[in-house]
Structure formats: C-alpha cells, structure tokens
Amino acid sequence: MARLAESLHLDASLSASLDDSTGTRAALERIRSLTHGFPYYAQPRAVCLTLEPWTPENTLMTPTLKIKRNNLASRFAAQIVALYQR
After folding, report:
1. Helices (H), ranges, 1-86
2. How far, in whole angstroms, is CA 34 from its chain's centroid?
3. Is 67 helix (H, G, I), strand (E, B) or coil?
4. How distant, in Å, are the alpha carbons of 5, 57, 81, 84 from that of 77?
5. Taking the model in full, what pTM does it have?
C-alpha cells in the first residue's frame, strides 16, 4: 500500500491520508480487481483503511494467520457502522 499511496501523492504514514477519497477509491478498485471472479454480493463495495496491522500479537489474527472476525468486529465497530451508513 505504500507504493499506492506514493503514486497518489499521499503519505502512507499519516492517518489523515486514510480518509482521502482518492486513496480509498484506489484501494477499493484494487480489491475489486482481485475479487472480480467472486459473485457480486461477495465483492466489497466499501473499505475502511487503517495503519494498524492485523497480527497475532494484537489478537486480530490467529498464529496461523487466519482472521479473528469477532475481534475485528469489536475493534472496528464504529468504522463498520460508518461504512453501512454511506
């Protein structure tokens, strides 16, 4: 994502860059291109960018690198609600 931010003239280390609509649109376009083979209902239509990595140490992933949905949902609850209000 650092290269994407650089190509959009955004600073990948600043949280303010995460709210830039250009960056959000570009990230969503990349995700959509990777999920083009998925059924429409399974393709993301909105994203929330974060500087916080998902790791086993912060309990957002298991040691085998599977996501922990409940932990993610509770950690990012406000952002998830905001995505559905758009």
Report:
1. 2-7, 21-34, 69-75, 77-85
2. 14
3. strand
4. 25, 20, 6, 11
5. 0.72
More confident residue, 84 or 2: 84
Above 80 in pLDDT, residue 76?
yes
Q: Is 45 in contact with 83 (CB distance < 8 Å)?
A: no
pLDDT at residue 65 tops 70: yes
Other beta carbons within 10 angstroms of residue 78's beta carbon come to 9
Signed CA dihedral, 34, 31, 80, 83: sign only:
negative
Yes or no: say if 59 and 68 are a contact pair by the CB < 8 Å rule: yes
Better-scored residue on pLDDT, 23 or 36: 36
